[in-house]
Amino acid sequence: MLSNLAVRDVETLVHPYTNLATFREQGPLVIERGEGIYVYDTAGKPYIEGLAGLWCTSLGFANAELVEAAREQMAKLPFSQIFAGRSHDPAIALGEKLKEIAPAAISKVFFCSSGSEANDTQVKLVWYMNNALGRPAKKKIISRIKAYHGVTIASASLTGLTANHADFDLPIANILHTACPHHYRFAEAGESEEAFATRLAAELEEMILREGPETVAAFIAEPVMGAGGVIVPPRTYFPKIQAVLERYDVMMIADEVICGFGRLGTLFGSTALDIRPDSISVAKALSSAYLPIGAVMIPERMYQAMLDESRKIGTFGHGYTYSGHPVAAAVALKTLEIYERDDIVGHAARVAVPFQRRLKALAEHPLIGEARGMGLVGALEIVADKASKAPYPTAKGVGARCTALALEEGLIVRNLGDSVALCPPLIITEAQVDDMFDRLTRALDGTRDWIA
Ligand code: PLP
Hints:
aminotransferase, PyrdxlP-dep_Trfase_major, pyridoxal phosphate binding
């Protein structure tokens, strides 16, 4: 029996990333409040938020300082635009802070409200820049199979997942996808991680040469792929990829929307994976998700081209009503202050040790084919046969079953197909990590019993 709230939901809302057909029978889990790493449903049942919302509530729930930063700014100036030469302190201060901590030489910062908007802006800026530089053919952007870069028309095109393209008539022109660096799934028999990375870099080079380097503008990548299944590339993958990009003057865009701000135990994922980005997208943990905000960190060469276009056209014709929203910017600024003051990145790096130990130990579980992760993010891939890596039939819904059993245990995780992803708030303690994995182990055992 669905509760009154659930019935109203089913009659009213379209839920993102939901099987809209089965949802009509099952209804929603309605969450009412949160505190620390826990959220509570309408019946008062607590859950560990094992995915930090959607890989984003890095400081957990009910952080009083973030609430106060929002309240203060809301009372002082709830909105002001930054179009047409207007500005305000929170946007300026946040831009300065991002430039200071960026893992690359950044000239300017452009604000938006989400990761999708940030990546959409990246596509537009790459095209705009190459028009300004007098190379209008250099427009193609290479992404990767299984990448996740968002859902607007351009960012969904960058995304390399079938469900984001099928029947949406995507991807658009000029977006290509190269191989996914998932050794467990895509390496050839006996191929080492090193040889696999070498082959993927060679495949990228072949793609660039086939398309014509004069037509390839940029490559975009998450340091560790998130929604594609938490895929950690081989150690030498990015240096090899980066060498190819440099040979053909192809920009490296780092999508730090999940990995940015401590997730991998370093302030930015690019540092952990040896990426030297030209341009960077951030969102999510920028404000610990307390308010929607994203940003594109822009290199000088791109900014100069934007200046030239602006002179020619009369304006830089791009921007959102909520670009640099003062309340979102004030909350983001406070979030970055807390990261620094409380050494949240150092804490994440320390807790990542027991987190990865417990995660990797589950590779021994009879259902698990691969336990993979880095820092405070990981995934467990359920397989039907460990030796052949054969999956269960999709229709069996094994991953979804495990997620449902975890909910019964008071743990929110997300299954990406039959991979179960974990990405807790960065403030999680070692004892809470143990509790989380104890609950997940019981859910996995329950899944095994259900299959048998
Ligand atoms: N890029 C990455 C790496 C993401 O994980 C996401 C969202 O999960 C996005 C971009 C899109 O962000 P948003 O959902 O805020 O549009």
